[in-house]
Amino acid sequence: MKIHLVPIGNSKGIRIPKAILQQCGIVREVELETEGEKIIIKPVRKTPRQGWAEAFRQMAERGEDELLIDDGLDLDESGWEW
């Protein structure tokens, strides 16, 4: 399928037919990559922090969820420098 480039400010763009967007599952965002002379457009499917809850649950089951640094708050002001 040939598509003409369309000027968009100082850039160029293409219009992607609705049927192709639906076939590829593209809704809102895409990832754009190049491979040699090819431009690869892929749908963004992963949301930030997706799968973190399950990963944390598995860490807890394995006992790998201990703190690496002390996050306690020293409220005793005797050791503080002012």
Kindly state the percentage of residues in helix. 10-25%
Biggest sheet strand order reads 1-2
Average pLDDT level: 89
Overall number of domains = 1
CATH class: Mainly Beta
Beta-strand content: 15-25%
Q: How many E-type strands?
A: 4
Protein structure class: alpha+beta
SSE string, helices as H and strands as E: EEHEEH
Cα(first) to Cα(last) distance is: 72 Å
Gross morphology: elongated
Report Rg.
Answer: 25 Å
What name does the CATH topology carry? Pemi-like Protein 1, Chain: D
Q: How does CATH name the architecture? A: Ribbon
Describe the structure.
The structure is a single chain. The protein is of the alpha+beta class and 82 residues long. The protein has a single domain (1-65), classed as Pemi-like Protein 1, Chain: D (Ribbon), CATH 2.10.260. Helices cover 22% and strands 22% of the residues. The protein has helices at residues 18-24, 52-62, and strands at 6-8, 11-13, 30-35, 38-43. The strands form two sheets. The chain has a two-stranded antiparallel ribbon with strand order 1-2. Strand 1 and strand 2 (11-13) form a beta hairpin. The mean pLDDT is 89.
Q: Characteristics of this structure?
A:
82 residues, alpha+beta, Pemi-like Protein 1, Chain: D, two-stranded antiparallel sheet, elongated
Q: Quick gist of this model?
A:
The protein is of the alpha+beta class.
Layout of strands and helices, then pairs:
Elements: E1 6-8, E2 11-13, H1 18-24, E3 30-35, E4 38-43, H2 52-62
Antiparallel strand pairs: 1-2, 3-4
